[in-house]
Amino acid sequence: MIDVHFVPTPNGNKVTIMLEEVGLPYRLIPYNMLEGEHLTPEFRRINPNGRLPAIVDHEPPDGGAPFAVFESGAILLYLSEKAGGALMPADPRGRSLAQQWLMWQMAGLGPMHGQAHHFIRYAPEGQDYGVARYGAEARRLLAVLETRLADVDYLAGEYSVADIAAWPWVRATYAIGMGLEPYPAIRRWLDAVAARPAVQRGTETRNAANLQSRRPTLTPAQWSNLFGENMLRSFGAGAGPLAARE
Ligand SMILES: N[C@@H](CCC(=O)N[C@@H](CS)C(=O)NCC(=O)O)C(=O)O
After folding, report:
1. pTM
2. Among 18, 3, 20, CA closest to 69
3. What is the pLDDT of residues 39-86, one digit of tens each?
4. Cα of 80 to ligand 1 centre, how many Å?
5. Is residue 199 within 6 Å of ligand 1 at its C-beta?
6. What atom of ligand 1 comes closest to residue 39's alpha carbon?
7. Residue 244: what pLDDT?
8. What is the pLDDT of residues 167-179, one digit of tens each?
9. How many CB atoms lie within 10 A of CB 215?
10. Looking at residue 68, what DSSP letter applies?
11. Is 218 a member of any domain?
12. Which residues of 113-141 are buried (b: 16+ CB within 10 A; e: fewer)?
């Protein structure tokens, strides 16, 4: 059995989609991030970085003690290997392409779109530089994806962990007001992935409506748990400049 420490966000859905695709048994352990449920020493022992998702494999391949994995990209690779190389191309070039696009998602699409979500949806009004900077990066990365998908059906040629990593983030672009009309190849790929039964099962759990809206409303305590003092204090990060909600 695999425990999935879970929130129904793009990073969380990568893991549930992958588990549904490969058919490994798992149990969801849901967290309410707004209430700071992830800011505990117990969860820090599973993920030293304190973020979601993370998994604990109670039957790791070496037969040893339960094994924890954090970072959604590393989780996808771990699950692929556990499932005998599932959703990784068998040929070396294809495998490298899947790794390249997975790294691109983890280092580019995820963090940049994440910041675009923060500045467009959560930051106090008037944070124009952040909106401009991350909005531009978000668009640039969509253009990179469009160019790639105009040439191939899936990021590594065949459907792979790279598509599972990128798809939930691209699906979420509606929330930052970026329509996909200018990107016909992305639209085709988005629909093809969405039609997979495992993807549908893996994305059944959705965020509360407030968090799906263009401009979620957070109480001061929720803001502090996500971006402010409560979050920093739980890491022992000390005093310093803080994100402030006006
Ligand atoms: N690079 C990490 C990112 C994880 C991440 O930022 N997760 C968000 C939810 S999608 C989170 O835990 N946010 C809570 C917080 O920032 O305190 C991954 O891909 O797993």
Report:
1. 0.95
2. 3
3. 999 999 999 999 999 999 999 999 999 999 999 999 999 999 999 999
4. 21
5. no
6. 17
7. 60
8. 999 999 999 999 9
9. 10
10. E
11. no
12. bbbbbbbbebbeeeeeeebeebbebbbeb
Distance 52 CA to ligand 1 centre (A): 5
Q: How confident is the model at residue 162 (pLDDT cuts 50, 70, 90)?
A: very high
Domain presence at residue 244: no
Residue range of the domain that includes 139: 92-201
Give the pair of three-digit tokens for residue 43: 């969860």
Instruction: Please give the share of the chain, as a percent, with pLDDT higher than 90.
Output: 89
Q: Whose CA is nearest to atom 2 of ligand 1?
A: 71
Counting from 1 in the atom list of ligand 1, the atom nearest the Cα of 11 is 10
Ligand 1 contacts CB of residue 115 (under 6 A): no
CA of 209 to the centre of ligand 1 (A): 19
Number of domains in the chain: 2
Q: What is the pLDDT of residues 189-221, one digit of tens each?
A: 999 999 999 999 999 987 777 777 888 889 999
Atom of ligand 1 nearest to the CA of 51: 12
Separation CA 224–CA 75 (nearest Å)? 28
Task: Kindly state whether residues 139 and 164 are assigned to the same domain.
Answer: yes
Q: Is 120 part of a structural domain of the chain?
A: yes
Q: Is the CB of 51 under 6 A from ligand 1?
A: yes
Query: Is cis: bond before 184, omega within 30 of 0?
Result: no
Mutate to test the pocket of ligand 1, among 7, 43, 51 (most ligand atoms within 8 A of CB): 51
33 lines ligand 1 (CB under 6 A): yes
Tokens 């959703």 -> residue = 87
